[in-house]
Amino acid sequence: xxxxxxxxxxxxxxxxxxxxxxxxxxxxxxxxxxxxxxxxxxxxxxxxxxxxxxxxxxxxxxxxxxxxxxxxxxxxxxxxxxxxxxxxxxxxxxxxxxxxxxxxxxxxxxxxxxxxxxxxxxxxxxxxxxxxxxxxxxxxxxxxxxxxxxxxxxxxxxxxxxxxxxxxxxxxxxxxxxxxxxxxxxxxxxxxxxxxxxxxxxxxxxxxxxxxxxxxxxxxxxxxxxxxxxxxxxxxxxxxxxxxxxxxxxxxxxxxxxxxxxxxxxxxxxxxxxxxxxxxxxxxxxxxxxxxxxxxxxxxxxxxxxxxxxxxxxxxxxxxxxxxxxxxxxxxxxxxxxxxxxxxxxxxxxxxxxxxxxxxxxxxxxxxxxxxxxxxxxxxxxxxxxxxxxxxxxxxxxxxxxxx
Length: 404
Ligand code: PMT
What we know:
Blueprint: E1 8-13, H1 22-31, E2 35-40, H2 50-57, H3 68-71, H4 75-82, E3 85-91, H5 93-101, H6 107-113, E4 119-123, H7 127-131, H8 133-144, E5 148-149, E6 153-156, E7 162-166, H9 170-180, E8 190-195, E9 199-203, E10 206-209, H10 215-226, E11 230-235, E12 247-250, H11 254-264, E13 270-273, E14 280-282, E15 301-303, H12 307-312, E16 319-326, H13 330-340, E17 345-350, E18 362-369, E19 372-380, H14 381-403
Parallel strand pairs: 1-2, 1-3, 3-4, 4-5, 8-11, 8-13, 11-12, 13-16, 16-17
Antiparallel strand pairs: 6-7, 9-10, 14-15, 17-18, 18-19
Helix pairs in contact: 1-2, 1-9, 4-6, 5-8, 10-14
This protein binds ligand PMT.
């Protein structure tokens, strides 16, 4: 859900017409959980006012290498150390040349020189400037030093000419930035995740459901994607945006979720069931809105299929992880589910207390598997999901070694 949660991105904006897209870039990075600090070159301030970046980043913009207030604390070094990623967007021909030559006469170039963080460029310039042998040589020098780039794209330019030099789209830059944080623990592994509640109709306007916002499941899908997995998310109704790079299938009922899971599970290496699937469905939902009567209607319920159990009982099941939502005896119930459903792992959480479990942004997980367990203390669902994926990746690899 928030692939850049608590990641520090130092965005360097250099002079070019594409600078007008950079405020949107800041907004999108922050939506993904990143903390963003903006450095502007003098030329960039001719295109967009620093105040705009201050407003969208929520923090003052850095402009001067020799700002006495900041430099008393070695501001450029602090910024260079603070950053987990230096993103230069747009990266002008001039800035690329200065970076290639190792200049350190302004804040932007000095931060790049003084950092150990990866540097990602989004070049933007006139196509002839981009094609120029000097720019190409500078760019090659930087890529050989490990600097990464996204774009430039081909197309119509601000000057009216056509060719390579357009800055990559903001969405493309965001994906590239996200990939820089990818841990690769699940590189190439196919992960199927269920999330959210299901809704079982009573009539066209009413339904039975379970409490679930989908936050935990979406965070798990995002963390798996961030670890390099190909992720498919089968989600019940939620208000959440699908994490970048994740394929989603929207379902409503438990029966829909079952059918979507069974259609996709044979392609999955790992199955993670975070969904709060309704255990019962209404046997015969009314086809028209039921009228209010003096005596309450009797609903006949029938059990839904336990999707997790069905997956784990396949002849060749994927590495199967269940969740357990409990209000008491967390560990005993989690171990019970591990054995009863023949699972590889269970992530158990206490629900029913405000601030944890359902709906909230935070949770606690107690993870159990055959011969082991690990407690993940209270933290954001994004952070917990990342830790959970690390444990799943370890156990998944161990299980594969056991099979050989
Ligand atoms: O969505 P949030 O607001 O972020 O809340 C997160 C959560 C509390 C919903 C989540 O962390 C969680 O605990 N999900 C599992 C909820 C649940 O239904 O638990 P359970 O103990 O009833 O079910 C055990 C397991 O069987 C779960 O993996 C569930 O997905 C699976 N199941 C249950 C019933 C069913 N018919 N099919 C299933 O696959």
